[in-house]
Amino acid sequence: MNITTTLKDNFKMQLGSFYVEVWGCQMNVYDGGRIKDLLTAAGFAQVNSPKDADIVVLVTCAVRAKAEDKVFNQIASWRHTGDINDDTIIALGGCVGSELAEQILELDKSVNIIFGPRTIHRLPQMIGQFTATGKPVVDVTADAIDKFDYMPESGPVGPSAFVTIMEGCSNKCTYCIVPYTRGEEQSRPVQDILDECVNHISNGVLEIHLLGQNVNSYHGLNPDGTVCNFSSLLYEIAAIPGVERIRFTTSNPMDFTDDIIKAVHDLDVISDSIHVPIQSGSDRILHAMHRRYTAKQYINLVKKLREARPTVHISSDFIVGFPGETDEDFEETMKVVNEVKFDQSFSFVYSIRPGTPAAKLEDPVPKEVKMQRLYRLQNRLEELASEYTQSFLGTTQRCLVEGTSRKDESELKSRSSSGRIVVFKGPLSLVGKMVDVKITSVIAHTLKGELV
Ligand code: SAH
Ligand code: SF4
Ligand code: F3S
Is the bond into 250 cis (omega within 30 degrees of 0)? Predict the structure, then answer.
């Protein structure tokens, strides 16, 4: 299907300019990129500020209350500064779109179009419908992943590309809104993913970053109708000529099976940094969260990963102050942190999400206690990450050059396998290439070095 022509034929409007703002996780960043591709192919012109745009597209996150508030605050702020006005078409999508759907029209009357993570491909038609009728358009359907079938091929994106391999999540961790905003877990067919990777490689990409809420449980169909699991997909992608590095986010510990650990051992192209969120170190809390593994099982997984790849860096997400978390539960978390020695990790205070099972639980722990726990956890995580950063001094790191350094244009900015930013002096011609850099100094978490 020639998408461009079909979409253009469908429009009875003069195509305008659009601006896309993205919040939230990497899956939203991927969706934001695809929306740009889609609207550009449909004949709209991308601009870099809401002020210059006829259509402002907001790709939102609902994972915590604060994340959700951001979009409404941003619209109000743009209105206040005059960056948007009554003529600006506002299309609100992503996870807040599907979480709140029609309610948004009550919350903010300036919103015209509401879409969800799985309806981004219908955005051009929704814009057309709104301009034709002047009436708000809402489509947050989340029962299929046909969005991937309607995307034009992506153009050059730089040396690293996100590739979503699955949508949604069926784990229903009790605190989490994602299964309700992105729908049940569905995997893309293998060939679609491989085609997307090959297209990126032909556009100069060296690093493929696979995305999903639970990549380890990937179960897409092979062309012959058999099911492909995540480890087989890793081998297939690693075999594409030109793939120099593979990252994947996010792994759920319960699905990190031995065949995936073997792939980490076998495939040098898999990066050293592996993000496997534990959330809590207390089995009681893990059970209440419906995480389906124990702290001991998690520690065992890390041990196996380190045996398979001694240079691996494990990072995690943590939630502190889950309803009913006691001091003892929190100490269990600290114990696991000290045992595993996580690298650069994320930690958050529990945020109540309407409609999730945990929202019904009693939560007697005072906010100040939760904040103190978060502070202690973050301090320890920072210490551990700093120790890892320091440990790179004197080593040689294989780095992917992403561009010039923001602070000093005469320096190049690159990324090591462990995910550290590495800056060094070198010619611009190295951008988009893999190079070896000897680390000579460390500033915060940034490594500085010399080209080998
Ligand atoms: N699929 C991933 C997580 C995606 S959400 C996984 O299972 O690991 C990203 C992170 O947000 C989670 O790992 C969790 O730490 C945090 N998070 C999710 N819901 C939250 C909530 N209600 N309150 C605080 N943090 C939350
Ligand atoms: Fe949320 Fe759990 Fe699914 Fe992760 S695995 S997206 S935390 S429900
Ligand atoms: Fe946020 Fe949705 Fe991602 S809630 S974290 S944008 S899946």
Answer: yes
Collect all residues with Cβ–Cβ distance below 8 Å to 207 and sequence separation of at least 6.
159, 160, 161, 244, 245, 246, 247, 271, 400
Quote the pLDDT of residue 14.
53
Q: Which residues of 359-398 are buried (b: 16+ CB within 10 A; e: fewer)?
A: eeeebebeeebbeebbebbbebbeebbeebbeebeeeebb
Question: Who's near 272: CB < 8 A, 6+ residues apart?
Answer: 309, 311, 312, 313, 416, 417, 418, 419
Which residues of the chain fall below pLDDT 70? 1-14
Tens of pLDDT, residues 110-123: 999 999 999 999 99
Find the 176 Cα to ligand 2 centroid distance in Å: 6
Instruction: State the Cα–Cα distance between residues 178 and 286, nearest whole angstrom.
Output: 18
Q: Helix, strand or coil for residue 309?
A: coil
**Helix (H/G/I), strand (E/B), else coil: 277:** coil
Residue 61 Cβ inside 6 Å of ligand 3? The answer reads yes
Strands 227-229 and 219-221: antiparallel
The pLDDT value recorded for residue 236 is 98
Beta bridge partner(s), residue 46 = 18
Cα dist from 278 to 24, 119, 297, 313, whole Å? 20, 31, 10, 14
Kindly give the distance from the C-alpha atom of residue 105 to the centroid of ligand 2, in angstroms, as a whole number.
28
Ligand 2 residue neighbourhood (C-beta within 6 Å): 169, 171-173, 176, 178-179, 213-214, 252
- Ligand nearest the Cα of residue 66 is 1
Pocket of ligand 1 (CB under 6 A): 63-64, 175-176, 178, 213-214, 250, 252, 277, 279, 317, 319, 348, 350-351, 353
Name the residue of 96, 182, 275 to mutate for ligand 3: max ligand atoms within 8 A of Cβ: 182
Residue with CA closest to ligand 3 atom 7: 178
Q: 222 — phi, psi (to 5°)?
A: -75, 165
pLDDT at res. 5: 42
Nearest CA owner, ligand 3 atom 1: 61
* Alpha-carbon torsion (71, 131, 48, 156), positive or negative: positive
Rounded Cα distance between 271 and 398, Å, is 10
The tokens for 176 are: 């989490």
Residue 232 CB neighbour total at 10 angstroms: 17
* Backbone region of residue 168 per phi and psi (left: phi > 0; alpha: psi in -120 to 50; beta: other values): left
